[in-house]
Each structure stands twice: as C-alpha cells, then as structure tokens.
C-alpha cells in the first residue's frame, strides 16, 4: 500500500478503545489541516512524493518543510565574533532577545521590581542599561572615549546603529562592538553583585 493510500484511509474510528479513537481522530484532524494548507489532496500527494525515499517518508525533510523559519536578524551575525569574548556576546544576545531576568520579568514572584542600582523606578532592560543614572554615566564616558555622539536608548537600536554607522576604520568598528558588549556585560554583572 502506498503511503498516501494510508494517509487517505484514516477514518473517524468507531472503536471502543478510547486511546485508539483519540489517536485516529487526531490523524484525521491533521490530514484535513494539511489538505487545507496545500489546497488539494493532489498537492499533498505531490509533496509526499518529494519527501519520500525508497523506504518511505523521510521525516527530516518533512520537519524541515514545516519547521518555523525566522528571518535571521542582522545583529545575530554581528555579536558572535572571535574578537568579542563569548561571555560578553552571550549576555548581549540574551539582552537583545529580551531574555535577561530583570526584576520586571520576575514580577510574578511578587518581589520588589525596583531598579537594583537606583531604586527609583521599575527595573526594565531599557532602564537598567540606558535610563538609569548609573548606566547613563558609564555610557557617557564610553561614548566620549569612542567618539559616539548619538545617545543610545535600547540594546537593539544601539547594535543597529553600530551596523549602520560603520566607520572606515575596522579597528574602530571592532572597538565599538567590544565596548558595547563589554559595557552591557559589566552593567549586568554589577547589577547582580548589588542584588546577590
Ligand atoms: Zn536605575
């Protein structure tokens, strides 16, 4: 029996076995979704032929087809460089993905959510890294040192700016990237030392 014969032979089970009944219902539901997604049973057969090998369906091809694919963000290739220490890149990567455990993100624990450095306002990543008076002072010195005139307000806009405003000097471009990653890492580490 061809695999698409099997695929189209599922019928809502009248079996008394509840487990089997559920399984077949799920298969029927998946089949109808696939047919809707491809437009017709013929289109499904065509794709199944593409995903097949002599021994049957190649699940890795099916997975690759259905796997959600996100467009690669430009900053992903910029922050992982040999000249940036991996621990700096890692914290910057977490920050860019909004994955650092700032107190705002831990509010569900019903703990104090105020900024660990200034205690003035809620500790969001935006506040902690840029708006906080302590961080602002650090950035002012870093920007002066590297000749960056623009004020930075979020990690994403800072990285985008560095990508867009590359100078002719590759050394300076590298220094700016290292400075960003190092400053973010140091601020995060300082914040953790204050808390713990
Ligand atoms: Zn603060």
Structural account:
This protein is mostly helical. The chain folds into 2 domains: 3-66, no CATH class; 74-195, no CATH class. It is built from 10 helices and 2 strands. The protein has a two-stranded antiparallel sheet. A hairpin with a 2-residue loop joins strand 1 (52-53) and strand 2. Bound molecules: zinc ion. Zinc ion (ZN) is lined by residues 115, 117-118, 120, 127, 132.
Integer-rounded radius of gyration: 26 Å
Please give the share of residues in helix: 55-70%
- Low-pLDDT stretches are none
Number of helical runs? Answer: 10
Oligomerization state: single chain
Strand/helix succession: HHHEEHHHHHHH
Average pLDDT: 84
Query: What would you call the structural class?
Result: mainly alpha
- Approximate strand percentage: under 5%
Small ligands present: zinc ion
Overall structural domain count: 2
Query: Which term fits the overall shape?
Result: elongated
Number of E strands? 2
Largest sheet, in brief, is:
2 strands, antiparallel
- For the terminal residues, how far apart are their CA atoms? 64 Å
How would you write the strand order of the largest sheet? 1-2
